[in-house]
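STRUCTURE REQUEST FORM
Protein name: NUDIX hydrolase
Source organism: Ligilactobacillus murinus
Requested output: structure tokens
Priority: standard
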Amino acid sequence: MKINRTFIPFDVKLLNIIWCFDRKTNQVKVILKDEGDWTLPETYLIQDEDALDATIRLTRELTGQTVSPKNIEQLETLTNPKRVVDGKRLVTMVYMTYLPEFPDMMTSTLELFTLENLNSHYYFTKGEKQLAVATVDTETEYYQKRLRKNKFYQVNDYVLKKACLRIRHSLDTQPDILRILGEAFTLREARSLYAPFLGVSFHEIDNSNCQPPLTKVSGL
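Status: completed
Returned output:
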């Protein structure tokens, strides 16, 4: 029995969630780019470049920092059939980068947004700007409901939610997010980092909650 299949062209992009820590304010930040709407940095892969190399390159282009592969984590690959741009399927690989140093921005289109948590809902702020993450849990649900309330391009609000939840769930086992504190940091800074992911004040986090996981982040 012959099965008819329709194959359509597709593009592959890489989305980079770049995390960092502001020691002046003890706040967790993420880099967003102003392209009419606030978006996460993205790039196409160039010839002879794999996804990890592309993530390192994009991070260097935006921040001037060349990060180690250990500071990069793959989050998800987005393949929903509804992701079609100009007649082509769009496949997007999502990575997270943990900047060990606070960045000096290289272009005027980049801004640092602060991670906040109100009543277990994550959102990002910059002055009066407030960008909420998606309320759904899966990519399929996201496209079924076509959520666009905060004007993120495509699935930025969805992947930021996935990133926050991934990090929150890893805090007790493999808290690689601590890499944004660099090689030397205080327990107060670690508590300030944990707080928005857990949805509590850093005063509510006992030092003993932070100390055991520190030994599980290899290379720190």
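Reviewer notes: The chain is about 25% helix and 30% strand. The chain has one domain: 11-214.
Form closed.
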